[in-house]
Amino acid sequence: MSVLDKTRQTYLLKWLKQQAKQHKVALLCSVLTGLATAICIIMQAALLANILQDLIILGGNFKSITVYFTALLALFGIRSLITYAREKFNFSLGAAIRHSIRQQLITKIEKEGPVAIYHHTGGGLSTLLIEQIEDLHDFYARYLPQMQLSMMIPIIIVAVILPFNWTAALILMATAPLIPIFMILVGMGAADVNRRNFKALTYLSGHFLDRLKGLTTIRLFNQGCNQTEQIANAAERFRIRTMNVLKMAFLSSAVLEFFTSISIAIVAVYFGFSYLGEFDFGAYDSGVTLFAGFFALILAPEFFQPLRDLGTYYHAKAQAIAAADNIEKFIIQPTHVNESTSVKTVNFDQNIETIVGKDLVILSADNQPIIGPLNFTLTPPFRIALTGISGEGKSSILNLLLGFLPYRGSLMINGIEFQTIDIKSWRSQLSWLGQNPYLINGTIRQNLLLADPLATSQDIADVIEQAQLTELIAQLPDGLDTEIGEDAVKISVGQAQRIAIARALLKPCQLMLLDEPTASLDKQTALEIETILAQSYQQCQIIMVTHHLNQAMQFSQIWRLHNQQLYINKPDSMLC
Hints:
The protein is built from 20 helices and 11 strands. The chain has helices at 6-19, 24-57, 66-112, 114-117, 122-134, 137-161, 166-175, 178-187, 190-213, 215-220, 224-275, 290-312, 314-331, 394-401, 423-427, 444-448, 457-466, 470-475, 493-505, 523-536, and strands spanning 355-363, 369-378, 383-387, 407-413, 416-417, 430-433, 511-515, 541-545, 557-562, 565-570, 573-575. The strands form 2 sheets. It has a 7-stranded mixed sheet with strand order 6-7-8-3-9-10-11, sandwiched between helices. Strands 2-1-4-5 form a 4-stranded antiparallel sheet, with helices on one face. The chain is elongated, with a radius of gyration of 34 Å.
């Protein structure tokens, strides 16, 4: 596994910070409330030192410190409110940026379609969209604001101690650099450790989900023990890498606590020897006062606290860099959908009159030729049967027309180059039905309304009748509001396909793309489904990927793919 080099880490850190630029107000509020908390702490330290000076040195009584004591209690309440407000700002900052980055990923997946997920497992994408995005939270909610506070708060504390005792201020300034230096030394390689942990989690998620889906096959071939062992090995690798991350976090915390304790101890020893008369330096005109000693000792831990917090959150930075490595790579993948830098994108809001391919070569996501060159001209009305053995690229033609694959050569719609057409306006003219169309885990009504959220009850009733679902709906206990379960487990494959057809019928279209919609069905059910399609889309152009021809579809042309070439056959002649 490759190591995440320093140049890449620097770039990813810059990328992470760039994502926060649109949320400057929330970040500023977090920093300001952090500064307000520090000011409250300084005021509390001054009040406590005054109370002790008054009681011990000046021989005062409780009445003489009533004002100080009341102010101290008030500051406790104010500080609690400010801390609460800061936590709210921090959480909202982290949540807003995570939402923004997750939206970028979802937009990327939506834009690329099947191409974006072709080389990813379901578990891997889930890990990317959920766990790895969530692991950015502490970077934005904790580390980023704390990085600014760690530079400002120590300077403020030294500035308020300096007028009372320059030696204590000098000790704090001299020992402060030790913490970030050792924090960096301990944290070196932390991003790479976290990255390996994410890789192990992604592999475990994808591996487990894949085996879960293939459980029937695994049991039939008596491979249960073997697959269990593989999952156990993947889980063990993930456990080891998780423990490496935790060791790194605990080690960094221990180092920070050690050097902080040493620094505070030096300040305490200095004041102790000063009160014993061994040291007579540090004060200005008079000796070292009890007020100065208590004030400096109370603030000494607070001087290091921002640096300690930064060290505690340093693993959040390493974790975020490791997560960002996968997220940033996914987002910046070249987008091949209707890219055009020289011609303005045009909306497609007209009837389809011609679809012409000339020397058309369909490319994969990494710009490798799949099939072609192809030459064809389509003029409505047409019903195309697209045939050929598996792997010839039949689905690639549909993916090209859906705007999910790039191409070379020319593809013209009504004389307009396809690359210059706004893809959303083009897709609004299309409808698609595949071999295993996805039904969400919800009710039948919710699945139908995906096609048209504004569809009326009559619209739904019409498509149910067209898809021959009326009898099925009547038999269900809750009718249209019946839950179909995850992956439509509560209904048969044929029933799920009919629901998908009804959903497609709710969306008016000019061109219907069918990718083997009956391949998973028995012969009788397949015949019924194709008859429904033929009757329902009489006014719509159809291109259908199929391995068998059904006369009910009344195909006008038969396209056969062979050796990356297209052969066009009409019922009465052969056109090559």
